[in-house]
């Protein structure tokens, strides 16, 4: 009887020790892990009436908020509304700073890979009209879809770390 009680106590000690090690290992892994802010946003933006509508540049800049991890690369896409009757230049800004500009026709998409620092960011799109179609020299309204998706950091690839897998995006530039 004494031997059976001692064996049960030993078994409980081993199980308790294993549980403690597992808990400490789990806490350490969470504490040392990189923050996972995988970005995957798709949002329609528009300016239904540019105010004032007196030039080729619409003064209103719709915004999309996103959060990224430190040293992250994101793929930014803008697809112009298919109902546009003229081409436009999409000026893409992050935190108020110009990142790239590209012409885009109705239903067409422009995209770029951009490096961003960790934290909260604001992506804005400014529309500039291109004379032609229904555009006679003034932008009245515009809209389109913004997509922002995380890409794997090249340092992660070199170190063999894969913190997340971004969704597949068609026709992504290399």
Task: Explain how this protein is built.
- A four-stranded antiparallel β-sheet has the order 1-8-3-6, with no helix packed on it. A four-stranded antiparallel β-sheet has the order 2-7-4-5, with no helix packed on it.
- The chain has 174 residues and is of the alpha+beta class.
- 21% of the residues lie in helices and 39% in strands.
- It has helices at 2-32, 154-159, and strands spanning 40-47, 63-68, 72-80, 88-94, 97-104, 109-116, 119-129, 142-151.
- The model is unreliable at 25-35 and 162-169 (pLDDT under 50).
- The chain contains two helices and eight strands; from the N terminus they run αββββββββα.
- It has two domains: 1-33; 40-159, GOLD domain (Jelly Rolls, Sandwich).
Task: Present the secondary structure layout.
Elements: H1 2-32, E1 40-47, E2 63-68, E3 72-80, E4 88-94, E5 97-104, E6 109-116, E7 119-129, E8 142-151, H2 154-159
Antiparallel strand pairs: 1-8, 2-7, 3-6, 3-8, 4-5, 4-7
Please supply descriptive tags for the structure shown above.
174 residues; alpha+beta; Jelly Rolls; 2 domains; four-stranded antiparallel sheet; 2 helices; 21% helix
